[in-house]
Amino acid sequence: SASATAWRLNSSVKARRFIFCDLPLRLLNYLTAASTKRGEGQVPHTGMLGGGKSYTQKLSSIVGLLGAKFIVCDSSTRNEIAENGHTEAFKITVSPDELSKIPPLSGHVCHIPGPDELAFIQLTSGSTGQQRAINISHRSACHNAWAIGNALNCTQYSENDSGVSWLPLNHDMGLVGCLLFSIVYGFDLQLLRPETFLARPRTWLQIISDCKATMTTAPNFAYQSCIERIGSQELSGLDLSSVRALMTGAEIIRADTCNSFQELFAPSGLQPNAFVPCYGLAEATLAVTFDSSRSGIHTLPVPNNSEPPGDLQSIVSNGKAIADTEIQIVVPGRPTEILTDGMVGEVCVRGPGVFLGYYGEVPHQDWLYTGDLGFISNSELYLTGRCKDLLIIRGKNLMPSDLEWIAERELGGGGTERTCAFSVQNGHEGEQAVLVVEIPQSLLNSLHILDRGIRARIVREIGISVADLVFARRGQIPKTTSGKVQRNLLKQRYLANGLERIQIGDAHE
Q1: For the chain, how long is the longest CA-to-CA vector?
Q2: What CA–CA distance (Å, rounded) separates 120 from 39?
Q3: How far, rounded to the nearest angstrom, does the alpha carbon of residue 70 sit from its chain's CA centroid?
Q4: Which of 128, 189, 276, 500 is the most exposed place for a label (fewest CB within 10 A)?
């Protein structure tokens, strides 16, 4: 049983800092880890971090960040750590089987944690910089999971709900929004690997259909992938009439994506108001807002004091604050200047879900400044972008997505993270825009046309010129484990001439 395993782990090992790898098939080990006193970090398996050297380097960095005493992993991960020369990390590896064979310490009393003690350590995605370790208390974990169900009108231990998820359990959206949520409310949760969804998006929907699931969660790009890769001829055998909540968050929510998904799967019985937009971040355990109106996607025009994100002329509501949680909007960099409804500024959060602080740093207190931009209208939150991602080109404030979505439209698709924009300083010229575009094999002979088309459309729609448009093969844009583009890392590679760019004249080679 989980409790017996937890006791054995607590009784056998004095140091209580562990890293667990490849969690989806080791749920028992996660439950074991959550019961210890000092906290643990969870990381994905090798495939999700690029494999080989990339994965083991990431893992070795996490060991240093947390001061981990053990890495619990399978034999293949252990071998990769050794093969790539991470000697110190290799020395502390231990398999679940080895751990279970350690005899219990005589007379050891299992620690019973209090509500404000550390439950687990959640690593940030690192999409805008280096990873940081977030301390989450038992109170925050339990409250956030309960508040999600409260926003969705769930009843604990009822047979009315069930869920399906492919989200990785090392990510807050999968860990808290799916796994812990299902545990707190006692409903069945079907898990599939992220790679399975990425390879065959229809599998996700088929499992929902087969299990008569009522809830699932995914970022906007997942719904867009279904639109692009599932044809109307593949709808046979799909019954989505049981779904009452398609939760969407983790990135800017596009109304056109949600509406197209709804239209495509309406013949499969998908309810017209199934989409539930939400907003959250790891520093708030996960959830901050939920649209509990059951009215589906609803939008407002972009405020006059804000540049529209990308090609969007309206912004999707992310709903109201979850139970016991407050939101306010302030002037970025000036937290005492609180903005009124409709004014765009930095989103600030206060409530029981806000983290204890970053691991090894000063404990957090009071308001959490999220770094996200948005506005409030009728107590509902509307997101417009992120403070750290701002580009300032010739005095004009832009979000990277402004350029990225234009390029994606020129490529013939959207929402699939094939582009990345950032800015670089160029002497007296000041800040200039750089756009990296991943090109599939099928478009290599069209680079001249794409170059002209993308540049012209950006000038036409935004009014700026791209200083450098880089074409690269698929896989050159680094992403976090949750699929977010790592802009800073790509920028560093660009400045170090580390990108394998495709020259237009060499495209035929």
Answers
A1: 74
A2: 4
A3: 26
A4: 500
Cβ neighbors of 349 (< 8 A, separation 6 or more) are 284, 288, 321, 325, 326, 327, 367, 368, 370
What is the C-alpha separation between 321 and 291, in angstroms, rounded?
9
Distance CA 146, CA 290 (A): 13
Q: How many residues does the chain have?
A: 509
Dihedral of alpha carbons 227, 233, 237, 239, sign: positive
Tally Cβ neighbours within 10 Å of residue 48: 22
Measure CA 186 to chain center. Answer: 24
Which DSSP string corresponds to 64-107?
Answer: HHHT-SEEE--HHHHHHHHHTT-HHHHHTEE-HHHHHTSPPPTT
Q: Specify whether the CB–CB gap between 167 and 218 falls below 8 A.
A: yes
Q: Residues of 58-84 as b/e, b for ≥16 C-beta within 10 angstroms? A: bbbebbebbebbbbbbbeebbebbeeb
Task: Provide the CA 371 distance to its chain's centre, in angstroms.
Answer: 15
Cα separation of 223 and 238, whole Å?
16
Give the separation between CA 65 and CA 131, rounded to whole angstroms: 9
- Phi then psi for 90, rounded to 5 degrees? -60, -35
Residue 461 pLDDT grade (very low, low, confident, very high; cuts 50, 70, 90): confident
Q: What are the pLDDT digits (tens) for 221-245?
A: 899 889 989 999 999 999 999 999 9
Residue 467 neighbours by CB under 8 Å, 6+ apart: 424, 426, 429, 432, 433, 434
Listed as own residue / partner, the contacts of 360-369 with beta carbons closer than 8 Å and 24 or more positions apart are: 360/133, 364/283, 367/328, 367/335, 368/283, 368/284, 369/330, 369/335
Q: Helix, strand, coil: what percent of the chain each, to 5? A: 35, 25, 40
Does the predicted model carry a pTM greater than 0.85? no
- To which H or E segment does residue 269 belong? none
CA–CA separation, 225 and 198 (whole Å): 9
CB atoms within 10 A of CB 361: 10
